[in-house]
Protein 1
Amino acid sequence: MNPSPPFPPAHAFPRDFVWGVATSAFQIEGGAAEDGKGPSIWDAFCRVPGAIADASSGDVACDHYHRWAADLDLVKSLGVDAYRFSVSWPRVQPDGRGEWNAKGLDFYDRLVDGLVSRGIQPYLTLNHWDLPEALQARGGWAARDTVHRFVDYARHVARRLGDRVATITTHNEPWVIATLGHEHGNFAPGIKSRATAMQVSHHLMLSHGLALQALRAQGCKSRLGIVLNLSPIRAATDDADDIAQARLEDGRSVRWYMDPLFNGAYPPDVLEHLGRDAPRVEAGDLETLRTPMDFLGLNYYTRSVVSASGAWDIKASGKPLTDMGWEVYPEGLTELLLRLHRDWRLPPLYVKENGAAFQDSLVDGRVHDIERTDYIARHIAAVAEALRQGVPMAGYMVWSLLDNFEWASGYEKRFGIVHVDYATQRRTLKDSALWYRDFLQAQKAARRVPASSSNEFAGS
Ligand code: IFM
C-alpha cells in the first residue's frame, strides 16, 4: 500500500479554524421532479444532445435527497466542523417567483437540523448554479428582474433557516455562471455572447450586494459573503504579448470580481477592452456591490498559464495533472492568498473548495487514492504557509464529500473523498477521507494542548 503523506503542522492553524467538506444541491441531490421541485437550467441543459459528456443528468445523482441522514452520519464520522451545501432554488420555489414549495423547504429544514444535532455547522449557499428554468424563460441572469427575484428568495430562505446556519453564501463562482454559462456556452444555460456574460456577471454581483443588505435588514445572524473561483494567472513567457494577455485574463477573472466587491469599481483596463460588451450599470449599483461582507470564500484548484497565441501546453510545466487535465500546483494557492491579502482589504478568508478528480478503483472495499490524498495534504500545507505569512485564513473545505455529477463532464470525473457506486448508491470512504479524518483528529488533539508544548504530527 502507498504511504500516507505527512500531516501539515497542526499548530499552523488557529484554534477556531473551521475544517469542512463541501457539496452542492444539483450535483448530489437527485429527486429532480420530486415533492413539487421545479426544473432548473441544469435539468434543461442535460437534455441538450451532446451537452454532457456521458449524456447523464442530475435526475438521481447521489440520491442524497433520500439518503441525506446517512450522508450526514458520514460527514460526522470525518470529524469536520462544518458542512457546506447549497439550496436548490427551484426545489423551494419552483418558478423562481410566487409560490413557495413547503416540502422543499422542509427538506432543508431537516438537513439543517440534522447537521446541528450532529454538532456540525451548516454553511449554506443560495446559488450554486441551478437557477429555476422558469426564470431563464424570462431572461435569466441577463434580466435585471432576476436580481430582485434572487433577493426575495434569499430573504425567504434566511427567514426559514438563518437561525441555525453559520454562514450564507450568496453565489458560488459567479465567473463560471457568467463566462462558461453565457460566453463559452459549455455550461447551462448554454449561451454564447460576451455582452450577455458581462451583464450576467453584473447582475449576479448586484443581487449579492442587495441580498446582503436585505438579510441584514431582517436581522439575519448568519455571517454573509460570496465564493469566487480564483487562480493566479501567469504569462507563459516574458514576451510582451503574453504578459499583456495574462494581465487581461487576471482582469477578467480576478479583478473583475475583487475590485467592485472591495473598491466599488470595475477595472478600467477591462472596461476598455470590453468596449460595447461592458455591462449596463445603473446609478447606485457600484455602491451596492461593495456592501461589506463577513467573509470571502475562495475556490482553488490550479493556476492558469496564458499565452497570446493560445499555444501554451499545460503538459510543458512537467507537473502532475489531475483527471480534469488541471495542473497540480499547490504553491499557487499560497501565492494567490498572499496577493489577495496584499491588494484588497479582506474580511476573514475561507478556502471553500479544494480537491481533485482522479481515476479511482474500488478494490476489496478500499480506494487507495494516494494522488488525491497528496493533493489535499499539499494544499492544506499551502494554506498553513499563507497563515504563517499573515493572511487571515478562517477555514478550509474539501471538494467534495461525495463523487458526484461534475457538470458537463457528467459522472466521468470523481472528486469525492467518498466513493459512490452509482448503480447501488453504496458509499465507501476513500483513503483520502481516512487521511482527512485522521488529520482532523490530530488537529483536535493539538487544540487541547498549549501551543508551546506540542510537536508537529507525523503522518499515519
Ligand atoms: O464541481 C465543481 C463545483 O461545483 C464548483 N467548483 C469546481 C468544482 C470542480 O469542477
Protein 2
Amino acid sequence: MFIFNPPVIAHRGLSVAAPENTLAAFRQAKTAGINWIEFDVMLAACGEVVVIHDATLERTTNGKGFVHDFSYEELKKLDAGSWFNSHFSHERIPTLEQVLELANELTLSINIEIKPFVGQEEETVKRVLHLLKNKNIKNPFFVSSFSLDVLRYVREYSKEILMGYLMDGWNAGWKMVCDELDCISVDIDHEILTREKAEEIKKNNFILLAYTVNDAARAKELFSWGVDAVFSDNPKKIIQK
Ligand code: G3P
Ligand code: MG
C-alpha cells in the first residue's frame, strides 16, 4: 500500500538539522533524500490547524502559554527557530495548509499526527479532515494519533482516510482497535517493541512503524523483525551503509 524507500520517516522533519515541525525541517528532509515526513498538529484559538508538538509554546518558540489560547495571527509572529539555532530565527509555526502545499511542491509523503488539546478531539479532527479533503494532496498520506477518541472521530467522519494507531504502551487488544477502526498501521515506541510483538503485528498484515530511532544498529535490528520503517530525527544516520 505504501512504499517506504528509504525505510525512514523524518520525525518532525529533519529535526537533527533544523528546528522541528518547521518548513525548514521539511525542506531539509527532502534535500537529504527522505520521502516521508511526520509532523504534529493541534488547534490554535481561531480554529486554525497548526504544526507544533507541545501544547505549550515555551520549548520551541519565544512565546509563552498554551497554543490553543492564541489565534494564528498571534502565533505566526513567534520565532520558532532560534531555540534551535539563531540561523533559523525567521522560521514560524506553520499551518497544516502550508505544510500540505509544501509537501505537494516537494513530492513528500506525509504522516499527520493529530495531537489535540484535551477536550478538542472532535473539533481538531473535523478541521484536519476539512483541510485534507480540500487540498488535493498528490502523495501518499495517513493520519495517526495516540488518542482513541481522535481515531474514532476520524473514522466517524471519513470512511476512506488511512489511519495509524500510535502506541506508547503495549495494548494487548491492539488488533481489536485496528480492526474496529480499520487502521492500516501500528506505530509503536521502539523501546516497547520485541521480536514477538513485531511478528504478531506483521502476521496480521499491518504496516509496522517504530519511533523514534536514531541509532543505525537498532534500526537494522527492527528491520530484521519486520518493521517497515522507522521515524527518525536523523534519517541519514539510519540509511547510511
Ligand atoms: O508518530 C511518531 C511520533 O511522532 C510519536 O511521538 O511525541 O514524537 O509525537 P511524538
Ligand atoms: Mg509526532
